[in-house]
Recover the amino acids of this structure.
């Protein structure tokens, strides 16, 4: 049974580290809101903006291209369409963050279950009369507490990463919204 708890903790740890690394790569500024596009958004030349978006594939670039493809629609329709596309982009940015949030709650519980199991086994194997085996007793408690420690060592980095990446997605969302609004104010015929 101890192996089951250990495998669960190791699996949770590997999953958490994998998502932290993947989100760290995916949520780099150049992949979401490149400065090169942000600088061009206010440009008077629409083709210059579109070229920058094509040169630097990103969430913002895809939104600006969608907006530029629909400049012949009424402004309210264009805004609504861009907002719908933005929700898709934001959904991609938030991908797998929920798993980190789940790990934050589950990992300490897995560790606690391992601790409780270890203590049950320890006390179940003890004789009713003290036999002077206090060193074995202490070793058993230490083993049981390692499970809780392991769970916390998974949950703490996952919580930090989840908080950091969630905030980063919020920041990018505001920046994309601002850039799209600026683009539409500059380039939509119904300003």
């Amino acid at each position: 049974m101890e192996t089951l708890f250990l495998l669960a903790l190791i699996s949770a740890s590997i999953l958490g580290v994998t998502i932290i690394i993947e989100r760290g790569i995916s949520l780099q500024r150049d992949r979401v809101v490149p400065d090169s596009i942000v600088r061009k958004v206010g440009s008077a030349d629409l083709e210059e903006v579109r070229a920058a978006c094509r040169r630097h594939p990103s969430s913002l670039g895809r939104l600006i291209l969608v907006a530029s493809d629909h400049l012949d629609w009424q402004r309210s329709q264009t805004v609504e369409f861009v907002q719908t596309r933005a929700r898709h982009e934001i959904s991609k940015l938030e991908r797998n963050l929920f798993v980190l949030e789940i790990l934050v709650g589950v990992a300490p519980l897995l560790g606690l279950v391992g601790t409780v199991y270890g203590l049950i086994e320890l006390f179940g194997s003890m004789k009713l009369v003290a036999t002077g085996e206090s060193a074995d007793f202490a070793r058993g408690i230490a083993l049981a507490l390692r499970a809780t420690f392991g769970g916390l060592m998974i949950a703490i980095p996952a919580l930090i990463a989840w908080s950091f990446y969630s905030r980063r997605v919020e920041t990018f969302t505001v920046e994309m919204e601002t850039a799209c609004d600026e683009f539409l104010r500059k380039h939509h015929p119904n300003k």
User: Anything to note?
Assistant: Residues 67 and 82 are 6 Å apart (CA to CA).
